[in-house]
């Protein structure tokens, strides 16, 4: 059976739930329970259930997070790579820039985010039919749905560039919905930007700054808008959106070494995160890939053969006193051994490229591969460095950018920088890229940062890989191309 995920099927199933609400003459049946679907979707609790489903589809946790964050976000970069296990055969094409439209990881990413879009559109169709609910509540529901939708399109764009914008007209038949799924072409870059920006501006306006960082609120909408503008090089808009976030009630967590632990996850630095809960389908599966061979793990942990390694050259960009460096393992004594094993350099000083990131401090209560560490997607540190970068692009080296960067470095106990250290815009731009690497390693932003700075292809070439310019985008999955003849493939594939 084809695995083209059913973008059509997703929208048909969505439509069935919606059209059933209006099919008054079809299969009229006496209701013997209190859960009448027609009534269920006519009040806020029913729509909240649909909205929860949309968030669930958008959740970047578990192996979906591993694929997005590490395999697609870091393995093609100068930061992280992989060896061993059954996974290696699948990720070598990613690390070597030998991917093609049939490479397995692309279709899963494409389908998951379109499932979230379908569920968000479902909420938007239903919310318009609600009665006896005040307009502020309707606006909040719509704003959260549009946040889910815009986040999903944002993630798709980072991977593939503009993709089809799918909207289902109210009252559409199943045949019409199927045609939309099979015939909608890709949006232009201009259409994509206008659509996502409108969703995020609406969400930022209608949502309050209060609420959980695992749901859309004003802060997460403005934070995503900042990243959206930054990656699209709309520098003034990025600087302004970042400043709006900085006026909200967020603060840097005081101890970077605990920021990503279970102990530290309920912090005021996380603007938007994906919750991971033991016993649920939302888990963090990173640490089993980080443990070196025969590392002394707890009985309730597991060590995978597929190992995620950090390049020595990246590790050595940290100053010795930098607290962020403490979350790497460069030496350990294996089980049954007496002498320690080095992971950064051998006795002759040769780079081993085997440093291990323990950024997600192992969950003491983990169950096998399942750890409960939440996965942040937008942190205050990201917004601070985004504003510093945007202001440098607008004005060249300036004291505001320097002060913002030093907020991050001071928390890490790294040496503060001075304006006089950077005579040109290019010099400060290069430093910001390096600082983002030190701050956001193991968070999946390296690929998009390198692309924005025009360094993604060159850093691969520097490592001896025959990367080509068109590979700043991944290909549209072949299954999706086969399903929709109007879905144009990215250039070069």
CATH topology of the largest domain: Serine Threonine Protein Phosphatase 5, Tetratricopeptide repeat
What order do the helices and strands follow? Answer: HHHHEHHHHHHHEHEHEEEEEHHHHHH
Number of separate structural domains: 3
Count of beta strands:
8
Strand order of the largest sheet: 1-3
Structural class estimated from helices and strands: mainly alpha
Radius of gyration: 23 Å
CATH class label of the largest domain: Mainly Alpha
Beta content:
5-15%
Tell me, rounded to a whole number, the average pLDDT: 91
State the end-to-end distance: 24 Å
Number of helices: 19
Q: What is the multimeric organization of the chains shown? A: single chain
What does this entry show, briefly?
With 493 residues, this protein is mainly alpha-helical.
Commentary on this structure:
It contains 19 helices and 8 strands. Helices cover 47% and strands 5% of the residues. The strands form 4 sheets. The chain has a two-stranded antiparallel sheet with strand order 1-3. It folds into 3 domains: 209 residues, Serine Threonine Protein Phosphatase 5, Tetratricopeptide repeat, CATH 1.25.40.390; 98 residues, no CATH class; 75 residues, Alpha Horseshoe (Serine Threonine Protein Phosphatase 5, Tetratricopeptide repeat). A hairpin with an 8-residue loop joins β5 and β6. The N terminus is likely disordered. The protein is mostly helical and 493 residues long.
């Amino acid at each position: 059976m084809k695995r083209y995920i059913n973008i059509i099927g997703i929208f048909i199933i969505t439509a069935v739930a919606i059209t059933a609400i209006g099919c008054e003459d079809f299969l009229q049946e006496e209701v013997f329970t209190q859960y009448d679907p027609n009534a269920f979707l006519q009040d806020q609790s029913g729509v909240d259930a649909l909205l929860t489903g949309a968030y669930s589809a958008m959740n970047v946790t578990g192996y979906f997070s591993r694929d997005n964050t590490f395999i697609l976000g870091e393995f093609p970069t100068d930061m992280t790579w992989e060896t061993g296990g059954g996974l290696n055969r699948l990720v070598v094409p990613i690390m070597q820039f030998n991917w093609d439209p049939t490479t397995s990881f692309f279709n899963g990413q494409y389908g998951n985010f379109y499932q979230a879009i379908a569920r968000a559109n479902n909420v938007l169709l239903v919310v318009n039919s609600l009665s006896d609910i005040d307009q502020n509540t309707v606006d909040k529901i719509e704003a959260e749905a549009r946040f889910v939708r815009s986040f999903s399109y944002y993630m798709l764009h980072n991977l593939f560039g503009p993709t089809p914008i799918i909207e289902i007209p109210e009252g559409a038949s199943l045949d019409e919905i199927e045609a939309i799924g099979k015939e909608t072409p890709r949006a232009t870059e201009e259409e994509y930007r206008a659509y996502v920006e409108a969703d995020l501006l609406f969400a930022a306006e209608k949502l309050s700054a209060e609420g959980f960082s695992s749901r859309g609120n004003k802060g997460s909408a403005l934070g995503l808008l900042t990243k959206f503008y930054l990656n699209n090089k709309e520098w003034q808009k990025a600087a302004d959106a970042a400043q709006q976030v900085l006026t909200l009630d967020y603060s840097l967590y005081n101890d970077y070494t605990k920021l990503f632990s279970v102990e530290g996850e309920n912090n005021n630095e996380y603007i938007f995160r994906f919750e991971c809960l033991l016993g649920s389908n939302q888990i963090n599966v990173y640490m089993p890939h980080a443990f070196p061979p025969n590392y002394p793990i707890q009985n309730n942990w597991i060590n995978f053969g597929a190992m995620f390694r950090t390049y020595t050259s990246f590790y050595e960009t940290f100053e010795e006193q930098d607290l962020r460096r403490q979350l790497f393992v460069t030496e350990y004594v294996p089980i049954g051994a007496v002498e320690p094993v080095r992971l950064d350099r051998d006795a002759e000083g040769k780079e081993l490229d085997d440093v291990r990131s323990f950024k997600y401090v192992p969950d003491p209560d983990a169950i096998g591969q399942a750890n409960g560490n939440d996965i942040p997607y937008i942190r205050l540190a990201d917004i601070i460095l985004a504003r510093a970068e945007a202001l440098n692009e607008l004005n060249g080296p300036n004291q505001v950018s320097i002060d913002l960067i030093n907020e991050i470095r001071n928390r890490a106990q790294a040496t503060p920088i001075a304006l006089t250290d950077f005579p040109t815009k290019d010099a400060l731009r290069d430093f910001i890229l390096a600082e983002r690497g030190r701050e956001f390693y193991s968070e999946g932003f390296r690929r998009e940062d390198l692309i924005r700075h025009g360094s993604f292809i060159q850093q691969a070439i520097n490592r001896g890989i025959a990367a080509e310019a068109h590979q700043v985008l991944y290909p549209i999955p072949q299954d999706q191309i086969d399903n929709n003849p109007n879905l144009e493939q990215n250039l070069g594939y």
